[in-house]
């Protein structure tokens, strides 16, 4: 029994402390060994007190031996909880930086959301505009549909309209023909009116030309000047019909015509620029003419009322004369 008490008294007493970072365990300092020799000499009451104290000590040691494993488990749990708390604290600090980054992203997202809201507002207004345009287009489609129905109804009338158009085309052709005829008549009337106007001034019309018969005797050169003053020249002759018209209209009077030559050896030509046909003119000369009597007959006239009526004479002789000008219709 004393050995047991000694072993129990020799069991270490455990103590621990817990701070924020460490948990420490250490044995309690062993109690000092009692000095038995004085105890034996003390009174019995002291022994009893000592025994009681020993029992209390043994009980405490037993309790410690019983609850120590549980306490160690609790300490380990506390350590693991502390480690977990440290990990969570580290996670919270890292989460704080992540939250800061996320806050910046959230702010950027808010700006983008505002931009999107603005774009959506514009898109909404554009959609409203498109809706209005669609309504207008729908109304126009309805109008076009009605017009198409009218076109369909008109299409059935196309053959009848085509027949009417053909009739109208024929009538238009007749009308155009009548208009052309009317224009020709108007031109003819205008031409006749212009001719009558010139005739009233003493001119005669033949073959598209106007002729003025002056019965005032003049030299050949004076007669040409008189014709020029009337926008004409002494007449030329280019055909038998014209020759016949001239000698008949001259009423058997000798009249200067526009035939002349330059000097004795010169060639005959028309003063108005008409080409002189020497072969054709042979049938218009009086037989034996031109003879250039006295080498001074360089101008021509109509002397007799015949197809062969031409005669050469002195240009200084005075005769009536015939002027000629092309008829040009006045523009209305």
From TrEMBL:
The chain crosses the membrane at residues 48-68. InterPro entries: C-type_lectin-like, C-type_lectin-like/link_sf, C-type_lectin/snaclec_domain, C-type_lectin_CS, CD209-like_CTLD, CTDL_fold. The keyword Glycoprotein applies. GO terms for cellular component: membrane. Pfam families: Lectin_C (PF00059). SMART domains: CLECT (SM00034). Homotrimer. This is C-type lectin domain family 4 member K. The lineage of its organism: Eukaryota, Metazoa, Chordata, Craniata, Vertebrata. The gene is LOC100757258.
């Amino acid at each position: 029994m004393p050995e047991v008490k000694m072993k129990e008294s020799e069991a270490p007493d455990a103590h621990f402390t817990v701070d924020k970072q460490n948990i420490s365990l250490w044995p309690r300092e062993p109690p000092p060994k009692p000095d038995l020799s004085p105890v034996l000499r003390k009174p019995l009451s002291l022994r009893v007190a000592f025994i009681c104290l020993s029992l209390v000590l043994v009980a405490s040691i037993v309790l410690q031996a019983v609850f120590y494993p549980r306490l160690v488990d609790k300490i380990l749990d506390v350590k693991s909880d502390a480690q977990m708390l440290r990990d969570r604290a580290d996670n919270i600090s890292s989460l704080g930086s992540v939250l800061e980054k996320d806050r910046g992203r959230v702010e950027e997202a808010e700006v983008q959301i505002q931009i999107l809201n603005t774009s959506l507002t514009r898109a909404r207004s554009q959609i409203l505009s498109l809706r209005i345009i669609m309504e207008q287009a729908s109304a126009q489609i309805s109008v076009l549909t009605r017009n198409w129905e009218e076109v369909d109804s008109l299409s059935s009338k196309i053959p009848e309209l085509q027949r009417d158009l053909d009739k109208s085309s024929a009538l238009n052709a007749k009308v155009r023909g009548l208009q052309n005829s009317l224009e020709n008549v108007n031109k003819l009337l205008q031409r006749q009116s212009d001719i009558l106007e010139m005739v009233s001034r003493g001119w005669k019309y033949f073959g598209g030309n106007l002729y003025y018969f002056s019965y005032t005797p003049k030299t050949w050169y004076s007669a040409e000047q008189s014709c020029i003053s009337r926008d004409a020249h002494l007449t030329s002759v280019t055909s038998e019909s014209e020759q016949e018209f001239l000698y008949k209209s001259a009423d058997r009077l000798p009249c200067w015509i526009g035939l002349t030559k330059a000097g004795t050896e010169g060639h005959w030509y028309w003063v108005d620029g008409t080409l002189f046909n020497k072969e054709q003119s042979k049938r218009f000369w009086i037989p034996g003419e031109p003879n250039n009597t006295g080498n001074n007959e360089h101008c021509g006239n109509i002397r007799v009322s015949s197809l062969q009526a031409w005669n050469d004479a002195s240009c200084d002789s005075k005769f009536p004369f015939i002027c000629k000008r092309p008829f040009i219709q006045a523009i209305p």
